[in-house]
Specification:
The structure is a homodimer. In chain A, 36% of the residues lie in helices and 23% in strands. The first copy, chain A, has helices at 19-30, 46-62, 101-118, 143-148, 154-159, 168-175, 203-206, 245-263, 300-320, 340-352, 368-371, 398-420, and strands spanning 34-35, 38-39, 65-68, 74-77, 84-89, 126-131, 190-198, 211-217, 219-228, 232-233, 269-278, 284-285, 288-297, 324-333, 336-337, 357-362, 377-382. In chain A, the strands form four sheets. In chain A, strands 3, 4, 5, 6, 7, 8, 15, 16 and 17 form a nine-stranded mixed β-sheet that branches.
């Protein structure tokens, strides 16, 4: 795809999306697992399976050829074209999650595909829609999108369990999906993957901007750093004779904060989300202390510098004293750049619709990061009220939801016109 | 009591204690609630009540007039004298505790009283023995010793519960103690209170010294410092927009460690025994974080300086940013000085028995700290192997146990001779 200014009406395939129809679909989907203003629809629960069945019916009613694949991906293809823009996200949620999250990106796809079919079969590029299974890691994080690009092994599927101990293979068998083929990305067919999502953060709202073109999805690494000392009576043991894992952790964590301040880039974020001291009594010197350090950036170079801070401080703390220190990697996901040309098409679509827009990184992971290595991929954000997400309070103004739909539809038109031209 | 050099044999009332008899009693007592090499004998459990009944019998067999009072104190008086040295400690334990802990101090008292009675009725000063109830805070910390000096109110007894929700009043009623009178310290009778205890720390062992004369029992204060921020997505929320309770706690705790290093005295100890971050997930900015800070010293002035560090750093952290900080006192026990003249008598007794000895503070709390404001009080420590206590692995060499008994008996002789002279 090259970047050229294209009049979306030039070829007469303007996609006339209907905001009210989208909102009605979104509200209907939110009934599956409804919890107050939010949704509780964990992967492969009865609510999730019912939502997938409902989605298949909606796809078919829109004129798509739709099926659920062997990992639970709900996939609808436009029947009249041999090339298509793929639009999607996921319909599973975290526990007590929001009604938009991944659902909105899938419903955008459904409405744009439906409007595209309604516009007539003369479009050179159709619209395919997908709801990827288990994005939220109930069993196996971003299972559906990784399966779709061939990055899930049989062993991973065979060994995954949810927190209640249910095996993924049993969940897929109960759902009736287990023996079905696995849908795959088709490089001959799919010209682009587009995913719209609520921002899940406060940047757009703070900037009073309605559309975000995602430049990169951040990489994420997690390290657990473990301090092993010795339990002692906190009254009778002189300070100089202690092997205090807790105090060692406090000193260490302060040094890492200093180091991150020094080496982090403008988009770097980090979090000490979990700390535990064992045995955890006021009058017992901590025998063991553990801290979970998560950090994200859009570039590997900065992430490597941050990891060097973590490891360097651990080596220094270990060398310093009586407490042993171990830094243990827990997760490493590489950053994924979005396609710059697609981003500029989206930016142009926003400009034509007079929607304020800005380029920004995604600080959260998405299915798009797995597609990005295999097909030109773009993500669009719309504002989250108060930056809230993964919570029943998650919401977005209806006007923003509908504007996002129109910008994404216009982007599809631009892509179609480029393919045709 | 004045300090003068007194030949313990001058008045012919040398108390001939028998180490093997002491050890046999200690081993017999350790059968009540035995757990491997240790003891599980929480206050007012069947094991604890059976041990109290056994102790009454042993006291009576030794010739003492013995009874259990209204809070469970087992109190035996020497019948032939109107004045007495009181010797005791406690026989209840922590969960999975050691076999010596408080039991040893009570059994020292029993053996010294028995040997004193055997030596004949010509001693001017008898030996009374007491096992104070619930020193280990199963219901109500140091209940027995505080009751004995009139420092427990009816409300405290009426409202105390154990961790299983059993009311102290119900436990006392079931034991048959509830309607009995409360034994009290008798200033006309009791010339001194002596408590022997394992050190529960590593100092004597590290110094290869067998007897510790306690100078003071440290005061203990606990503060919980609470940081209240806001949960946010740890990927999508820019660092500058966070209200990160966890990072605020890390910075704060580092500042308190620096401050304690600066203002602490040679005997000061401190401990950050418990830290919690809420909600405690790697990808969620901590909404709330709490740290429990315990510190001890033998002087109020140093404890006040340490408290000023805690409060000053909290005020600074609160003023600095978006996270609110509250420092909440949880416990405040004043330091208690032991009687210097009694300490010197004990030091002299150790010297006569050629036992290596040193003066040292007690970093742990003991019943003696409540007696100290009401009667001349001394504590003696003997070594703990590896400094271990409150654990089934707690132990002391038999030779050290017997040497401690002999030093304490010689101290009683010196006190008796002073009273007579």
């Amino acid at each position: 795809l090259t970047e050229t200014a294209v009049d979306p009406r030039k070829y007469g395939i303007m996609i006339e999306v209907q905001g009210e129809r989208l909102l009605a679909d979104l509200r209907a989907l939110a009934e599956f697992g409804k919890e107050g203003t939010g949704v509780n629809r964990l992967s492969f629960t009865p609510e999730d399976l019912a939502a997938r069945d409902w989605l298949i019916e909606r796809m078919q009613a829109a004129g798509l050829v739709a099926e659920i694949d062997g990992v639970g991906n709900v996939y609808g293809r436009s029947p009249a074209q041999s090339r298509a823009v793929l639009i999607g996200s996921h319909t599973d949620t975290v526990p007590s999650g929001g009604w938009l999250d991944g659902a909105m990106g899938v419903m955008y796809g459904l409405e744009i595909a439906r409007a595209s079919i309604e516009a007539g079969a003369d479009a050179a590029v159709g619209v395919d829609v997908i709801s990827f299974a288990d994005e939220e890691s109930t069993f196996c994080g971003t299972l559906g999108s990784r399966s779709f690009v061939g990055e899930v092994g049989e062993t991973e599927i065979a060994t995954a369990h949810n927190l209640e101990g249910l095996a993924l293979t049993d969940a897929l068998a109960r759902a009736g999906y287990a023996d079905r083929p696995h849908a795959r990305l088709d490089r001959d067919r799919h010209v682009a993957y587009l995913e719209a999502h609520i921002e899940q953060g406060p940047r757009l709202e703070a900037a009073a901007t309605r559309i975000g073109m995602v430049t990169s999805i951040v990489g994420i690494r997690r390290m657990e750093v473990i301090f092993r000392g010795q339990s002692d009576h906190a009254g009778t043991t002189p300070m100089a004779m202690r092997k205090d894992a807790g105090a060692a952790l406090i000193r260490y964590a302060g040094a890492v904060l200093d180091g991150f301040d020094a080496v982090g880039g403008p988009d770097s974020v980090w979090n000490f989300g979990h700390v535990i001291f064992e045995p955890g009594a006021g009058n017992v010197v901590p025998r063991e202390a553990r801290i979970l350090i998560e950090y994200r950036d859009t570039t590997m170079a900065i992430m490597d510098r941050m990891e060097a801070v973590i490891r360097g401080a651990a080596t220094a703390a270990h060398a310093a004293g009586a407490v042993s220190v171990e830094a243990r990697p827990m997760m490493a996901i590489a950053p994924a750049d979005m396609d710059p040309a697609l981003g500029r098409l989206m930016d142009g679509a926003a400009a034509e619709l007079k929607a304020s827009a800005m380029y920004m990184p995604s600080g959260a992971g998405h299915d798009a990061q797995h597609l990005a290595n295999h097909v030109p991929t773009a993500m669009m954000f719309i504002p989250s009220i108060g930056g809230r997400s993964h919570d029943t309070a998650e919401n977005t103004e209806e006007a923003d939801i509908v504007l996002g739909l129109r910008v994404l539809a216009a982007t599809v038109t631009k892509i179609g016109n480029q393919v045709r031209s």
